[in-house]
Amino acid sequence: QQQVKQSPQSLIVQKGGISIINCAYENTAFDYFPWYQQFPGKGPALLIAIRPDVSEKKEGRFTISFNKSAKQFSLHIMDSQPGDSATYFCAPDMDSSYKLIFGSGTRLLVRP
Amino acid sequence: DAGITQSPRHKVTETGTPVTLRCHQTENHRYMYWYRQDPGHGLRLIHYSYGVKDTDKGEVSDGYSVSRSKTEDFLLTLESATSSQTSVYFCASSGQGYFYGYTFGSGTRLTVV
Question: pLDDT of A14-33, one tens digit each?
């Protein structure tokens, strides 16, 4: 059952550009929408998350945009830096699910 | 990776041999998870635990078993390793509620030859 669809699979952005990664979900019971960041050789780490009572959340250069009616949420990385080069995963969740399901991941490369 | 230790970090084993991967957390988290990560598949849940001796299957549980005898330890066992189980395995934990996110270990790279 494909509950989460993430796009694109890979993304190349020039330094200073905007990186945009999208996540579409099916389960309307999801009520927590996080993005995880993973560097090579490391486990994923929570980057930023949003609850459905707001449409946007910004933390530094990272912004989540949430569209409840379209069942989509996006990660925007402003002024992308080479240090942002990593794999990003969306993982929508809900209370008592006990099963965090990840998107397939987006490999971001930010060129100097 | 603070609070979660996985061992070993790397392992090469032969087809048909049993393998046990270990996960140790110091966060006193109630929930623990085993994921595998493969190119093109992202992270897939193998098994999870919602308390000591309470475990359940994830989406790719065939060929794997788990045990949790203490809050801090979660073991993943491949009863008879196959080449399709070559992967990077991640352990994770959560404790304060799903909206605080999960904490992951640094992974175990397992190669079955």
Answer: 999 999 999 999 988 888 89
Instruction: Name every residue whose Cβ is closer than 8 Å to that of residue B9 and which is 6 or more positions away in sequence.
Output: B106, B107, B108, B109
Chain B nearest-CA distance from A38, in A, is 10
3-state secondary structure of B54: strand
What residues of chain B score a pLDDT lower than 50? 1
- Number of Cβ atoms within 10 Å of the Cβ of B2: 8
Å between A89 CA and nearest CA of chain B = 8
Check B106 against A42: CB less than 8 A apart.
Answer: yes
Residue B99 has a pLDDT of: 67
Structural domains counted in chain A: 1
The domain in which residue B57 lies consists of 4-107
- Optimal mutation site among A100, A101, A107, interface B, most CBs of chain B within 10 A: A100
* 3-class secondary-structure state, position B76: strand
Contact between B33 and A100 using a beta-carbon 8 Å cutoff: yes
DSSP letter string, chain A:
---EEEE-SEEEEETTS-EEEEEEE--TT--BEEEEEE-TTS--EEEEEE-TT-SEEEETTEEEEEETTTTEEEEEESS--GGG-EEEEE--B-TT---------EEEEEE-
CATH of the domain at B37: 2.60.40.10
